Every structure is written in structure tokens, then in C-alpha cells.
Amino acid sequence: AAANYELVGTPDNHTGTNDPCRITAPTSQHYGNHFGTVALLSAVENIAASYDSLYPGIRLRVNDMSLENGGLFDVGNRWRQGLREAHAEHRIGENADIGYTGIDQRNRCINIRRPILLRIIGNFASGRTIEHNDHFHIRMR
User: Fold this and answer.
1) CA distances from 133 to 27, 92, 130, 137 (A)
2) DSSP characters for 14-31?
3) SS3 121
4) Is 106 exposed, middle or buried (CB count within 10 Å of its CB: 0-12, 13-18, 19+)?
5) I want to staple 59 with a disulfide (CB 3.0 to 4.6 A). Which of 9, 29, 33, 103 is the partner?
6) Per residue in 23-79, pLDDT tens?
7) Could you tell me if 99 and 60 are in contact, meaning their C-beta atoms sit under 8 angstroms apart?
């Protein structure tokens, strides 16, 4: 993580830790879900720095990149190989999720200006960005 973004989403990143936007603990039990290629990590840093230059003090929430050695995420604690799971693209460190909510200087959850963030993402991500119900899924390929 850096001054302008937080790595969130592992089982210990819920209420009472570094993610004031999470109400309940994640159901998945995997740790170490913030590994990525140099290109992805650079894009995340550039996206967060660009957003911070417009809205100082708002940290982006970055979740699920890839596990340390790649492979299938334990979505819902099922470990079902061969099925298209929700995080199928997060296996090789070229994807990340950036939340629609960020964290302000008082460590409160705050809405992100989505159209502006989407434009910023377009400047740094090389693949098509998907809008999910609570985050942007960015791609580097």
C-alpha cells in the first residue's frame, strides 16, 4: 500500500482493522491476495496518485489482485476447480479491484467520484475495465 491507497479484503481487513467500509469480515480464508505484475502495481500506484492529486486525502481501496503463487482464489471457501469462479481473472497478477468507496483522512468510508476515477483508470489500465456492484475491475493486458 501507499499513502493514497489501502490494500483491503483479506480476512483480517474488516471492521476494526484498515477497512472502515467493510461491515462484516470476508468469507474467504485466503491471505496474501495483493500480488501483481510490475505493470499492474505501477498502474494501481498511478491511478491512486492521480485521484489523490484531484481529491487529496482520499485513499482508494484496492482489493484482490492475485495470490502469491497465482492460481484459484478460495471464493466462498469451496475450492471448486474447473468452474468459472468470480475471480477467475485474478490468477496471474494482471487484474485488481478498486472500490467505489474510499477512506478519508479521518478513516471514514467515503464515496469515490466514479466517472472521474473511471477516466483515470482509462489512462493507466491497458484492458477493458468492468464495473461491478461495488468496484471497478481493472485489467493490464
Assistant:
1) 18, 23, 10, 10
2) STTTT-TT-SS--S----
3) helix
4) exposed
5) 103
6) 777 766 667 888 999 999 999 999 999 999 999 999 999 988 988 888 777 666 665
7) yes
